[in-house]
UniProtKB/TrEMBL annotation:
Keywords: Membrane, Signal, Transmembrane, Transmembrane helix. This is Cadherin-like beta sandwich domain-containing protein. Residues 130-210 form the Cadherin-like beta-sandwich-like domain. It comes from Candidatus Aphodocola excrementigallinarum. The chain crosses the membrane at residues 302-324. The lineage of its organism: Bacteria, Bacillati, Bacillota, Bacilli, Candidatus Aphodocola. Residues 330-388 are annotated as: Disordered. InterPro entries: Cadherin-like_domain (IPR025883).
Length: 444
């Protein structure tokens, strides 16, 4: 009985161990055959509560953890992504502390590239339209690619035109055929446009040259009148000309715009104030036009003469003013010189008077004593106490300095005489100077 119990216990232990191995972690990887650069995803599952599963491989890990726990499995964070950089066989192995999985074998091959060449054949264009037509460098205003016929009219003097056309499609070819010179009447030009697919469209340009007609041009290019500055204006038919009083006929030359036209001049004789000269121009078609020149005559024009006389008077006045001013300036200078000479002569006279005064003989001592005793001067008259008597201690100076009334009067007389002589001499010298200056002016 005891043996049976032991065997039963061993069986339970074995079953427990087997159960544990059956419940061990697992690893699954897909795909197992890839090309270089492709990715492999490995999923770890059946991880026990206390287990940690480590995954090892030589492949390049792109995402995911290298160690997975049960909580990672429960949270869905149990995937690991790898990629292969080169060809070969790689093993991926999962391990726990007491368990190692069988390695998962991954085969990496070189990727092969398949090139598919598609050849597309472009269809040829059928566009045979024109985009423009030009005649002598100017585009036809009402051109339309759908209008294939155009009419152009030119004057009779136009003998040649240049026509050009441009295709709407660059692959189309344009050809122009027509006469080299224009005849009077219709001249047809054909423009052919050939598309890339060899379809052709034709455009027609008919140039009509007008018949030759007689000119109706009665215009004047210029009018010349000999001896006068005639101002011609082509926009006017009436002109005014002021001529000399003695002129009775003018030499007129007319140049016409049209060489086939002619002109005739009327009224160009016996010209007087108010006369009208008519220039009648007749065109090639016999149409005519009249141009008029109205004559004006003035009496002798005194204005230039008056202006000349006034100008001459002004010049004479200016010259006279300059001469007078020059003489005044010279006289002022002479007067200054004369005044200087007069002052010099007066100075000389004063000097002579002083010398004469000094030469008056001294009074005798007897005369002085008698005058003092009688209180009289030498003439016997009483001397007023207010008379100017200068008393000087020096006897010699006193004899020469004490003057009587008679001496004073004599001294005044001599001074007056000397002054008159000096003035007469100065006047005489001034007269000579003025006479000399006048002689110089006459010589100038």
């Amino acid at each position: 009985m005891k043996k049976k119990s032991i065997l039963f216990g061993l069986l339970i232990v074995v079953l427990f161990i087997f159960t544990m191995k059956v419940n061990a972690a697992s690893i699954r990887c897909t795909p197992t055959s890839v090309y270089v650069g492709d990715q492999i995803t490995c999923t770890i599952s059946d991880v026990a509560d206390d287990e940690e599963v480590s995954v090892t491989t030589s492949l390049n890990r792109v995402s995911g953890k290298t160690t997975i726990t049960k909580s990672d499995v429960d949270n869905g964070d149990n995937n690991i992504v790898y990629s292969a950089k080169s060809t070969g066989t790689y093993n991926i192995t999962a391990k726990t502390t007491d368990w190692t999985s069988n390695p998962v074998r991954i085969t990496v091959s070189e990727k092969t590239t398949t090139t598919t060449t598609t050849t597309t054949t472009k269809s040829r264009s059928s566009n045979n339209y024109l985009s423009s037509i030009t005649i002598d460098g100017e585009e036809i205003d009402d051109f339309s690619k759908n209008t294939t016929r155009y009419f152009i009219e030119v004057e009779n003097d136009v003998t040649k035109v240049s026509i050009d056309a441009e295709a709407e499609d660059d692959t189309a070819e344009v050809d122009i055929d027509g006469p080299n010179s224009l005849e009077v009447g219709d001249n047809e030009y054909t423009i052919s446009v050939t598309s890339e697919d060899d379809t052709t469209k034709f455009y027609k340009v008919i140039v009509t040259r007008k018949d030759e007609e007689e000119s109706s041009n009665t215009g004047i290019k210029r009018i010349k009148v000999r001896g006068y500055n005639f101002k011609f204006n082509k926009n006017s038919k009436t002109f005014y000309l002021n001529i000399d009083k003695e002129d009775t006929e003018l030499d007129i030359t007319v140049t016409l715009n049209d060489k086939n036209a002619s002109y005739e001049i009327e009224g160009n004789e016996n010209l007087k104030d108010g006369s009208v000269i008519r220039i009648i121009v007749t065109a090639e078609d016999n149409s005519s036009d009249t141009y008029r020149i109205i004559i004006t005559k003035n009496d002798t024009n005194y204005i230039p003469i008056i202006i000349g006389v006034i100008a001459l008077i002004i010049i004479i006045v200016i010259i006279a003013f300059i001469i007078i001013k020059k003489k005044k300036s010279k006289n002022n200078k002479d007067n200054k010189n004369n005044k200087g000479k007069k002052k010099e002569k007066e100075s000389e006279v004063d000097k002579e008077d002083t010398e004469k005064t000094k030469k008056i003989p001294p009074l005798s001592s007897d005369t002085i004593d008698i005058a003092k005793e009688n209180n009289q001067d030498e003439s016997g008259e009483e001397i007023d106490d207010d008379d100017d008597i200068i008393h000087i201690d020096n006897d010699e100076e006193e004899k020469t300095r004490i003057l009587s009334y008679a001496e004073k009067e004599e001294l005044k007389r001599l001074e007056e005489l000397n002054k008159n002589d000096v003035d007469s001499k100065i006047d005489e010298e001034l007269g000579k100077t003025m006479l000399f200056n006048n002689d110089d002016d006459d010589i100038d």
